[in-house]
Design goal:
The protein is of the alpha+beta class. The protein has 3 domains: 71 residues, no CATH class; 81 residues, Phosphorylase Kinase, domain 1 (2-Layer Sandwich), CATH 3.30.200.20; 199 residues, Transferase(Phosphotransferase) domain 1 (Transferase(Phosphotransferase), domain 1, Orthogonal Bundle). The longest helix has 31 residues. About 16% of the residues have low confidence.
Length: 438
Amino acid sequence: MVSTSAKAVTDLREFLGVVRKSGLVNERSLKAFCAGFHASGTVAQAAKQLVQAGILSEFQAERIASGKSDGFLIGQYAILERIGDTASGQVFKARHRTMNRLAAIELFAPEQSQSEANRQAFQQVTRAVAQLVHPNIITTYDANRVGNRSYVVMEFVDGDDLATVVRNFGPLPIDIACEYVRQVASGLQFAHARNMVHGAIHPGHLQLRCDPNVQGLKAYTELKIRNFGHDAFERITGTEADGVFQLATNPIEYASPEQLRPTGPITVAADLFSLGCTLYFMLTGRAPAPVNGDDALHQFCEIVPANQIRAGIPPNIVELLNALMAREPAARIASADLLLERIAPYAAAGHTSIDPQITATVPLEDVSPFALEGDTESEITRGYSVDSQTPVSTRTRLNRVPAKTAISWHLPLLIGLAMGVILATGLAIAFVLRSVGR
């Protein structure tokens, strides 16, 4: 458990004693380090060398230099660094000490586990979330308690959240934004089929893995939904004020109108509304209704159409945004399945590995009337170019059909002729040998 206060260490021997007490370094490694480190070195020099040697992380070295020897181990995991804060606690990057596997650990605040009801709610939610094993959902590995605090161990995704990516690159190309929505919808489809609603879809809860070998936006191809179950846990253990739930996990700008008034359980429609707001953010660089904390304004104000903020957004995408962000749940797209069908034709085919089923969902109006030689009309899909947003015809590797050539029906005839020549030659040789024998 990451806690304790201590006084900074200035003596080298004392520093090494704190390293030993932390439990992060085995005795053999520590002795080997001491043998190669000059006795007159400073604490700062020793900490730097331990980091450079990969024995300690910077986070660990800084805490040990400040005199803190505990708070580094949670179960079988060693805390490497603090990577974020949530409404419920803190998130750390950690490494399993025997399996050497990286993980993200969320350590909940002590008050979240004070009552038996809260502890049971935590167990109920984490058991449900553990069943969500899907490529577009961050996997939950473990959940337990350390001291008076609960924690969850999750898959570590090295990259940035969607909010950071848009902040760094600006509004996204339309096909890439649609591809990200497709991936989120795929994860939601899986969860909704198992009666799990996220309840807090927004750019900060969508994590994009970054390929360090690729430059720019193309490095971010794989998206995963994180914090599944957090909103449910907050609602079970939270309180109401003035008849309205105080949303701890979903910014008001991305919360559906029904989440801001006590109208019963949150449904899949809330996730779809929030995903529509997220698509709007990706396309325009801003939330659909910046409210500065005024939830009444969010519920009743008119949203500026995305194509008035950014030119070139296809009419079908504008229509899709309207269908997702309808104020009344019944007026929205009914399910993640239907959203997948509508968003797939506009998703970036080359941005990530595309499910072969996607190409089968292209509606007739999006089929190009121009076919390349050897292709049928259904083998060409119409998309939007990344730069100009101009409709272009593209052929993907998944729907490409080899063109038929003239040699395909000549081949059996050629093989037959060749066999005939070989047979005739054999008979001639046999006749000559028989004549010579006589």
